[in-house]
């Protein structure tokens, strides 16, 4: 049952269950290989009858079996949230809706009647609504539940704005820090920058499937970045900078969130290495800001796949090895900051073939060899290469940098 947006809600059918993160679990685990398989006819689909129905005590096993069963029927796309439902005008819509009905009925028929009929038992399970693709916009209560759980993970003073303003008697779209879509009243943006909040980031934010912008910067959030955030397939801007977050650099951000334009995790205590396939699944990424952490390892050569990259900042970490020549393929790059790492070897000449460059910080590394020749950097305004091990003379081409305002070459082994 996809949350993907279609033109019009086809009907108002939805199931409200309190099954622990069922829909999002399905999204993360349904294999793409299975979802590409489609049964040849509706008659060939058959039924899904699990040996054990969901009874409140067997959630994890039940989800695995249900996921496998629906995927095996070739209908994984109806629960993965990857494929958008067709509009009603599509000639294949009736066929799609029949298949969606099958998935809907399979889920219902494999839930023990006693669990559905006893709300008190449902309430003991972590809350999440499961909504059919045919009603992708009826889940605003899920958004409210996710926000309230987020609030409960924060240590708030009694006079806090969130305590005063976040009333369940009012629309969540009127709550401080929350923005919604005008047509469907789903949460599309959260902005709590500079609220000085203390606490952890609730994994239930991953249930805000229509969220496009998440800004929790300049607070005092601790703990790790919850993996459930990777479920937010519409997210374009993620800003968790200037907190006290720890743990490994979350690779799922780079592999599961294909529409991201900005990732800002600066000034935390994140560790680990940059993913080797860092740009393989983020083709729209323009700003990658990771400065001021404890990232180790080398810069992956796959960085060149972020062809839209304009701003790359990975300074003040513990990154080693050479600067890959592939960075020269980032032809839209304007801001490059890699100072205060352990980068070594030559500065690739390809870097200074990027005509869009305006700011370059490579100070305080172990870079050696000569200062590279500059070609056509008419926009370059700032060039810091100080505190390295550069040798040789200063190339006369620096005099051709007509926009240059700040130049640092001190603390090297340069000759006149």
Rg estimate, integer Å: 26 Å
- Strand line-up across the major sheet: 1-2-4-6-8-10-12-14-16-18-20
Distance between the termini: 69 Å
The low-pLDDT segments are 1-37, 122-138
What is the 3D form?
elongated
Average of the residue pLDDT scores: 80
CATH topology of one domain: Leucine-rich repeat, LRR (right-handed beta-alpha superhelix)
Largest β sheet strand count, sense and barrel closure: 11 strands, mixed
Number of H/I helices = 10
Query: Based on DSSP secondary structure assignment, what is the total number of beta strands?
Result: 21
What's the architecture of one domain in CATH terms?
Alpha-Beta Horseshoe
In what range is the share of β-strand residues? 15-25%
Q: CATH class of one domain, anyone?
A: Alpha Beta
CATH superfamily assignment of one domain? Ribonuclease Inhibitor
Quaternary class: single chain
Structural class by sheet pairing and helices:
alpha/beta
What share of residues is helical? Answer: 10-25%
């Amino acid at each position: 049952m996809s949350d993907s947006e279609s033109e019009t809600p086809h009907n108002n059918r939805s199931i409200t269950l309190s099954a622990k993160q069922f829909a999002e679990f399905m999204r993360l685990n349904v294999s793409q290989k299975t979802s590409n398989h489609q049964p040849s006819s509706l008659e060939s689909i058959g039924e899904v009858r699990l040996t054990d129905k969901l009874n409140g005590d067997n959630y994890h096993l039940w989800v695995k079996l249900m996921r496998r069963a629906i995927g095996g029927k070739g209908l994984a796309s109806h629960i993965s949230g990857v494929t958008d439902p067709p509009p009603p005008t599509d000639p294949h819509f009736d066929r799609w809706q029949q298949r969606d009905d099958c998935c809907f009925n399979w889920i219902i028929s494999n839930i023990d009647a006693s669990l559905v009929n006893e709300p008190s038992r449902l309430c003991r399970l972590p809350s999440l609504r499961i909504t059919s693709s045919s009603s992708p916009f009826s889940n605003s209560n899920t958004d409210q539940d996710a926000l309230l759980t987020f609030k409960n993970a924060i240590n708030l003073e009694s006079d806090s704005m969130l305590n005063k303003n976040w009333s369940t008697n009012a629309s969540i779209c009127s709550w401080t820090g929350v923005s919604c879509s005008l047509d469907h009243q789903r949460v599309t943006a959260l902005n709590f920058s500079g609220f000085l909040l203390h606490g952890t980031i609730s994994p239930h934010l991953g249930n805000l499937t229509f969220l496009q912008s998440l800004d929790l910067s300049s607070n005092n959030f601790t703990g790790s970045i919850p993996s459930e955030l990777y479920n937010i397939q519409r997210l374009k801007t993620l800003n968790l900078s200037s907190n006290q977050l720890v743990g490994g650099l979350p690779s799922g951000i780079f592999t599961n969130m294909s529409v991201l334009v900005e990732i800002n995790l600066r000034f935390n205590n994140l560790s680990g290495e940059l993913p080797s396939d860092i740009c393989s699944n983020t083709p729209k990424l323009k700003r990658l800001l990771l400065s001021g952490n404890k990232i180790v390892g080398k810069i992956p050569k796959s960085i060149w796949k972020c062809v839209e990259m304009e701003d790359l900042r990975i300074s003040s970490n513990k990154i080693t090895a050479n600067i890959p020549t592939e960075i020269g393929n980032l032809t839209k790059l304007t801001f490059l900051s890699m100072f205060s790492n352990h980068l070594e070897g030559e500065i690739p000449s390809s870097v200074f073939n990027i005509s869009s460059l305006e700011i370059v910080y490579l100070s305080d590394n172990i870079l050696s060899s000569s200062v590279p020749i500059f070609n056509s950097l008419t926009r370059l305004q700032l060039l810091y290469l100080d505190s390295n091990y550069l040798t040789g003379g200063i190339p006369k081409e620096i005099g051709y940098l007509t926009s240059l305002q700040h130049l640092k070459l001190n603390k090297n082994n340069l000759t006149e």
